[in-house]
Amino acid sequence: MTQVTDRGLMVPTAQGRSSVLATCVLRGVMAAGLGLGALAVLVTVVWISSPYPDSGPGGALRAAASLWLLAHGAHLVRPDTLSGVPAPVGVVPLLLVGLPVWLAHRAARDVPAYGDGQEYGDGGEGGEGDGAEEDDDESVVLPPPWTAFAAVTGGYLAVGAAAVLYASDGPLPAAPLSAALHLLLVASGAVAAGLWTAYGRPRAALPHWVPGAVGRVLVGRHVHTAVRAGSAGTAVLLAGGALLAGTALMWHIGTAQDTFLRLAEDWPGRLAVVLLALALVPNAAVWAAAYGLGPGFLLGAGAVATPLGVTGTPAVPHFPLLSALPEEPRGSWATWSVAVLPVAAGVAVGWWTARRARDGEEVWRPGETALAALYGAVVCGAALALLSALSGGPLGTARLAVLGPVWWRTGAAALGWTAGVGVPAALVLRWWWGRVPAEPEAPETAPGVPSAVPDGLPVRAAVSEGREPVGRGRSWSRVVRWRRSTDGVRWWARPAWWRRPAGGARGWARLAWWRRRPGGGGEGVERGAYEPYDFLPTGAGAWHDSGAREARWAALREASGGLMPEIAPGAGGAGERDAGEDAGAGPP
């Protein structure tokens, strides 16, 4: 598969290139076939368990092919209608979209390489040796990116074209133009993402028309923070939307149960309805998130559901999830309270941005923090716009031609809410987390001289027991004492009036609204404050036993590095020192 040149390089031969390209095509075919086969098994199980099937096994397999095409976003056509006019079916169950996207991504991520015959993992271009990697003394060379992209995508689209032709004779054929467009978009996007991972996630260069200042910002540290902050805001919106949809469904549980029982009378049919409802749960979360953002969603031509009320006459089919839709023409406090959802999303964007602004190697300026929060709002708005476009679609003609949220309204509302709340929240949190001064450091001492604070009792221990740092002077006692961890972000508090007194038992402390802190300019040292020699032993017989006294003194002298006297006070010449020891070095 490879050939060694005069310079010692491993050059792939024509046979090696053809073998790798064939493997890439096979990976694309397998990815599409696995997704199609999984849905075929599910549909076949439902068909077998049905006591009165409408068609044979061929009809069930064609229905599975149509469902697989619908998972890519293709519009299906329902020819058998009461009016005789074919009706489109374009509402895509978002839970089914993840299967083909994940399979195509995996097929491209594990693209094979020349040389060792093994699959390529992480690394590649951007590493050492011009994209080559040494493995068992054999050179590993990836195929050209565009070649691998064309091979994997071509194999996937070949199976897609066969599925379109096979489903054309089924109960729900796919529109050819819509199927071709959506298959190409989904397959190319997933394969491109997989190849980007396989080639080591290289950072693409910006176009030349991007200004230098903006380019430095876009490729700098703000991008990662913006993606994480925008993802956090999107997650809050979707989680809140799912909670809102579940609450509304429980509120209308009686209507939903009646609709469920009317749709199917046997258990196989009810199983199919349950599976379809589970596949549409992400759609319900997106619809509820759009409802909480304000624009709401369409319930047919001329009918819109918003927190302010429902305008027009809704035209929706009978389905358990649709039983939770609002019906009141005017909103109430219960519908207006959904404004908490976008506010929480904006706070999440601001919190993630402020955390990165204070938790990095250097503290960001307020302008940088606001810009990163604005980028996070843009990411959140783009994500909600994309999800809104995927979650809706037509379910028929005339009044059923439009259902779901309008993508540009939902995206603009998400951008406005998260930017309007997230940017001020990021700035406020950045200021609040940086308002407490740094922890006081221990005074520097000369080499060999022990510190005034032993290792077992750091400076922070004085603060945790109710004593203030040294050198602050007068101040008002706070109701709550705040403490900051080492990273300067996470906090915890306790009441200032609850502490451990000098006796050791926990109890109520005195109210000290005005007091003088230690070292603040005069007497008034608080009772129980830390002293440098608090660690010395006390008691009736601690220093009267000569043997114990000498042993303790020897241990203390060894811990001090030889700076303390060799003989303890009162034991044969108090304060005597070694013959060669300077009298001015160390404590008496």
Describe the structure.
The protein is an alpha+beta fold and 588 residues long. 48% of the residues lie in helices and 8% in strands. It has 16 helices and 16 strands. α12 packs across α13. The model is unreliable at 1-11, 116-138, 205-219, 438-531 and 572-588 (pLDDT under 50).
First and last CA, distance? 84 Å
What kind of assembly state do the chains in view correspond to?
single chain
Average pLDDT, rounded to a whole number, is: 75
Structural class: alpha+beta
Main beta sheet strand tally, sense and closure: 4 strands, antiparallel
**Helix proportion range:** 40-55%
Jot down its keywords.
single chain; 588 residues; alpha+beta; 4-stranded antiparallel sheet; two-stranded antiparallel sheet; 16 helices; 16 strands; 48% helix
Topology (elements, then pairings):
Layout: E1 2-4, E2 10-12, H1 14-49, H2 57-71, E3 76-78, E4 87-89, H3 94-109, E5 133-135, E6 138-140, H4 145-167, H5 176-198, H6 212-218, H7 222-251, H8 253-263, H9 267-279, H10 281-293, E7 297-299, E8 304-306, E9 309-311, H11 333-336, H12 340-359, H13 366-391, E10 403-404, H14 407-433, H15 459-464, E11 474-476, E12 480-484, E13 491-495, E14 498-499, E15 507-508, E16 514-516, H16 546-559
Antiparallel strand pairs: 1-2, 3-4, 5-6, 7-8, 7-10, 8-9, 11-16, 12-13, 14-15
